[in-house]
Each structure stands twice: as structure tokens, then as C-alpha cells.
Write a structure and sequence with these properties.
Blueprint: H1 15-18, H2 21-43, E1 48-54, E2 57-60, E3 68-70, E4 76-77, E5 82-85, E6 90-95, E7 100-103, E8 108-117, E9 122-137, E10 141-142, E11 150-151, E12 154-160, E13 164-168, E14 172-177, E15 181-188, E16 191-195, E17 203-206, E18 210-215, E19 224-225, H3 228-238, H4 250-268, H5 276-285, H6 290-299, H7 304-313, H8 318-327, H9 332-341, H10 346-355, H11 360-378
Parallel strand pairs: 9-12
Antiparallel strand pairs: 1-4, 1-6, 2-3, 2-5, 5-8, 6-7, 7-9, 8-9, 9-14, 10-11, 12-13, 13-16, 14-15, 15-18, 16-17, 18-19
Helix pairs in contact: 3-4, 5-6, 5-7, 6-8, 7-8, 8-9, 8-10, 9-11
Amino acid sequence: MKSLTALHIVISRTPFVKFSRNMTGRMLAAIVMVFLFAGYASAASIAGTMSFVQGTVFVMKETKRNIFVQASVGDKLAEGDIIKTTKGSKAQVTLGDGSVIHIAANSQMQLKQYMVDRNRAERKIVVATTEGKLRFVVSKVVKAAATAESKWKTSEFTVETPTAVAGIQGTDFVVTVSRGHTNVAVFEGYVKIGNASYLIKGSITLSANQSSTVKKDETPSEVKTVTDAQKNLMQLETTKQEQASATPTAAEAAEIQAALQAVIDEIAKGGEGQKPEDIIAAALAAGLNVNQTMQATIEQGVDIAAVFAAAEKEGVDSEDTIQSLIEQGQPLDMVIKAATEAGVSKEAIIKAAEDAEISSDAINDSFEKTVIEVEPQVGSPSGP
């Protein structure tokens, strides 16, 4: 925790100061050392605690960059720490101000800034997330030592993503993030969202049961209603259930899959013959991540080539599309061919396939097959 106030030291060049330059130097050095130590101790203060861990969850400490260690319940978190969940895992962080952050599988977040003064009822908290799904339950009140609860006098709680910035005036909402999109769904209170780029003007304020999606270099999309099925899925994915075990259970996975299917079924009710881009837009607006969006699109009978074209039109990152299609069980050869025809670079395709845990040998084999299949078309003779 850092102090909310700044200290300014001014040294006046007067005869009084000149009377003992050595004494002044020693006093100034002592003052500087005191405040340096105080600042260090403040920065190292606890910002939050790992209050729930299910599956494999990692933490990278601000003091030990590039080193992820496995997290456990009770671990203390400081400003700058990064939390990362893996497939099938969940985590919960309880901040010192009383707010709770629920982290779904395959997500990452950083406690970018944490400045809280309970006695003054002031806070400034910034959470940055680059991928995944997080639910925030932000505390409405502050409880200073030996005093009754009261509202925050000054409260800034911000969530930053690659495409959006959300200012929190409410208490309960979910943020779903990919490289090209951010969806914000509000359950209670108010959340003001805008594009992460200061060049993109325009913002909107969402209230309870409303959502909006922010794409790269665009203003927030029109406001959508959060349905009961969507809310149920988001809560199941992020929030620990009663008597949740330390490892995911088959029953929990089945419950989440059933909730996801309910949302996909809602999307399908949009009508027969929906354009692929309409399906993708509806899925993203429903708070589905890219993986789930690909599942919803494929279930509507859209072929892989059309998926790529539609995803690109909706601003979905091509690497996310490739990785998601592979993880959905689509044939690697077909995915690579569709990506190649869509103009995705070989380097990007390889990286996405590797992120989907495909071996280098399998990737190379698929590329060779793809070249053989498309080569006759590219190099076919034009005439005798």
C-alpha cells in the first residue's frame, strides 16, 4: 500500500542554513533515509490475499519478475503482483479494502495499483487484465479501525484491458477479455466503459443487467441485456461454489458446460440462416470468450473458412481464432489451410498452434500437406 499524500521538502538558502553545512547535510540525509524506508515499507504492504485456489494457479511477485510460483490459499499479495490461472482452475483474491476478485480458468490479472487509506476513506485501485474472465465484487463501504462503517469519500476502482478501460461506480460485474475484445456485464451498480486508446472518444455507463463490448480502436457497442442464462454461466465460471474442492470435479465441469450450452441455444434463436459474423457478434456480446464463441459458431454449421472470415470482420485476433479452433477439436490441416488462405502469416499460425499445445512435428506435417493441396491451384498452367 502506498501513501495517498506526497511529501515535498524545500531547502531555503538563508544565512541560518549556512551556519552549519555539515549538520544540515547530515540532517537532510537522515530525513531522506527515513522517507525512503517508509516508502519501501509502504510499497511492500499487503494489498490482498489468495482466499481460494482450485486447480493450478500461479503468482508472479513484483519483487521476482519472470518467475511464476504455484499459489496457495493464504498467500499475501502486493501491488504489482500477477495472478494466472490455468485450464480448469479458479482463484479468488480478497483485497484489503474488502473487495473480492473471482478469477476464471485461463485468465491473468495484475494488481497494478493499490492505494488505500481507511482512516481517510480514500482508495485508488487499478487492476489490469490481458486475457480471461474476472468477476469483481467491489466493496461499497470502508471500515476504519474502531469506527462504524461508512461510504468511501474518494473511490477510484479501475479495470484496464488491451481494448478498454472500466471505471467502477458499482459493486458486481464481470469482465471477459481477449486480445481484440472486452465485454463488460454488470450485475449490480454502475460501470463506465470506454476504449483503452485516448484517441477513441466516447464512453457509456452500464447499469444492472446490461453489457457492452469494446473492440480495438472502436467505441463501446450498443448496450445489450444480460439474460439469466448468461449471468448463470458467468457466475459458475468465476465464483467458487459451496464446498468447492481444491481440484475441479466432473460435476462442476458438467454444470458449466450445461450453462454454456444454454447461452449458445439462446444465440441460435436469433433465427435460421444467421450470417457467421452475426453469430460471432452475438456470442461476444453474451460475454463468451473466443473459445466459447468458436464453439457457438461451429454448432451453427459454419465451416472453418467462413469462421475465419467472420472472426476477422468482427475484430477477433487471428491467433485467438486459430488456437480456439484447434482446441475445439477441428482438424489441424483444415485450420492451417483456412488460416493460410485468410492471409495469416506462417509465424502467427505456428505460434497459435504451439499455444494450443500442438507439437512442432505435427505443425510441420500439416504445413507440408497444406502446400501440396494449394500448390496446384497457385501454379496451374494458364495454357499450352
